[in-house]
Design brief:
mainly alpha, 5 helices, 58% helix, elongated
């Protein structure tokens, strides 16, 4: 017994159970990946890669849920970027134009207009950081095999991916 290598069982002894990976509890995927790997990868290149995962996966609702959550998050991010990219310059331009006409065309922006534009830029960056944080949160929960519903979009993703996810074992 003393001549056995460290950690090796003596001959004829039962092998202790090995710990399962994070994705094993969610069952097999039809794509040949572990579920937690597919769920985590679904947050990359959103919404294109998760759409592929959502359409290709036939039997694993954990992967479908994370893919749908990433799709909704990606569409929401796209809408946010478009609204901010189109509406924000218009509002700042109108506020700047109104301030310019109020100052007699000297090009000086009034305090109210600069405060408005500063506030809008701050709201824009808070939105960008919130979207980025949601992607990171989903990515980590997918790769670690956790069923985490993101605020606001998690319920929609659960409903559109076929209902609540239950572990395979």
């Amino acid at each position: 017994m003393g001549d056995q290598p460290y950690g090796q069982q003596p001959y004829g002894q039962p092998v202790p159970p090995q710990p399962q990976s994070a994705g094993a509890k969610w069952g097999a995927t039809s794509m040949g990946m572990e579920a937690h790997i597919a769920a985590g990868l679904g947050y990359f290149f959103s919404p294109i890669l998760p759409l592929i995962f959502f359409l290709m996966e036939k039997n694993n609702r954990f992967v479908k849920f994370h893919a749908m959550q990433s799709i909704i998050l990606g569409i929401g991010a796209f809408i946010w970027f478009m609204v901010v990219g189109i509406i924000l310059p218009i509002i700042i331009g109108v506020a700047g134009g109104a301030a310019d006409s109020a100052t007699g065309g000297t090009g000086a922006i009034s305090g109210g207009a600069s405060l408005l534009s500063c506030g809008l830029v701050c709201v824009t960056w808070v939105g960008y950081l919130g979207i980025f944080a949601a992607f990171i949160w989903g990515l980590i929960s997918g790769f670690t095999g956790k069923y985490t519903k993101l605020p606001i979009i998690g319920g929609l993703a659960e409903k559109w991916s076929g209902g609540p996810v239950t572990p395979a074992y």
